[in-house]
Specification:
Beta-Lactamase, nucleotide-binding, 2 domains, alpha+beta, 12 helices, five-stranded mixed beta sheet, six-stranded antiparallel beta sheet, transferase, Nucleotide_cyclase, 13 strands
Length: 348
């Protein structure tokens, strides 16, 4: 048997018993390296490299030749890769002596299957159970690491799904399903936050005119279509951080944070009324509506109170209805005099 054939036969045996190994010749050069060792060295074949030029022997110290290395056979070796990430290893060297593979000059086997940090190996070199001897406890540790990783990944995915479900449920709880606008719960949250932070804002109460006639004459499907189109128009005519609420039926509440200029408020309200008076087509037929709007502004109160502002906006809305619909009225305390307050049913 040739020397190369003997080395290959020895290497095959070592790959089974201790996959993380190196076979050295009498000069200290690697003549065969296990697949796991090649992984550590980030090469397909480490043959030809000098062992002590790749591994730094930290203990025992002052070893620089193959003869000195063979003199410490059976002693635990503390090694460190010279290249990044400078992983620390442990091993043991066994001289081969006079063998068919090496002749009288001899060689040695270095077993590196002991002591490597499993977590470090998995992270830095992507080692698996196949890179260790089947009897090595590292295999069991790897199984535990892999199991832990699998459990943590499953837990992470479950948490993401639960978080997504929670967010979806919260959004649904604060969303009107027909129009996609906020609902009364969302309105209470927005207004309470503005009150707590003492931000000025304008509060608009908008009610559709002639909407009942659409439902009565063309059916509820037409009414739903109109409400969805109304929502789209209001979103298009307001700022991204304005809040639009479907308060119920054909009533809407609009909240404009930091908007207290009365002329600007009236301009927005009149533009909304103008857009909502444009015919809305449903199955080839025109649906005609309008809107009445009542508004109040937090800056007009010494101490704004949510219930009071909501009631004042309603009073202004009813005044707009009484004046002929399709109008905007800004609240004024004089609106509360006499017969100015009527019911919504009467105003429609």
């Amino acid at each position: 048997m040739t020397q190369n054939a003997s080395i290959q036969q020895l290497g095959h045996l070592l790959n089974i018993i201790c996959p993380m190994h190196a076979v050295l010749d009498h000069t200290g050069h690697i003549v065969h390296a296990g697949a796991s060792t090649n992984k550590l060295l980030r090469t397909e074949d480490a043959t030809g490299a000098r062992f002590l030029e790749i591994f730094e022997l930290k203990r025992p110290r002052r070893v620089s030749t193959m003869q000195e290395l063979c003199a410490i056979d059976g002693v635990k070796l503390h090694l460190q890769l010279r290249a990044a990430p400078r992983t620390e290893l442990k091993g043991v060297l066994v001289p081969l002596g006079d063998t068919p593979a090496f002749g009288p000059a001899g060689g040695a086997i270095v077993n590196l299957s002991f002591g490597i940090s499993v977590l470090e190996a998995v992270k830095d070199f992507s080692l698996t159970s196949a890179d260790f001897a089947v009897t090595d406890l590292a295999v069991e540790m790897l199984y535990l690491v892999e199991a832990k990783s699998a459990v943590m990944e499953a837990s992470r995915k479950l948490n993401l799904r639960l978080q997504g479900a929670k967010i979806a449920a919260e959004e649904q709880a604060f969303t009107d399903t027909l129009t996609g606008l906020g609902n009364r719960r969302a309105m209470d949250q927005v207004l309470s936050r503005l009150m707590e932070t003492e931000q000025d804002f304008a509060l608009m109460h908008l009610d559709l005119d002639y909407f009942k006639a659409v439902n009565d004459n063309m059916g509820h499907a037409a009414g739903d279509h109109v409400l969805q189109r109304v929502a789209e128009l209001m979103v298009a005519e307001t700022r991204g951080d304005d809040t639009i609420i479907r308060a119920g039926g054909d009533e809407f509440v609009l909240v404009f944070a930091r908007l207290i200029n009365q002329e600007r408020v009236s301009e927005i309200a009149n533009r909304l009324i103008s857009r909502l008076e444009e015919p809305i087509l449903f199955n080839g037929r025109e649906c005609r509506i309008s809107a009445s709007i009542g508004t109040t502004i937090s800056g007009n109160y010494k101490m704004p109170a949510l219930e009071q502002m909501m009631d004042d906006a309603d009073v202004a809305l009813y005044a707009a209805k009484r004046r002929g619909r399709g109008q905007h009225v800004l609240f004024d305390p004089s609106l509360r005099g006499g017969d100015s307050v009527v019911t919504m049913h009467q105003a429609r």
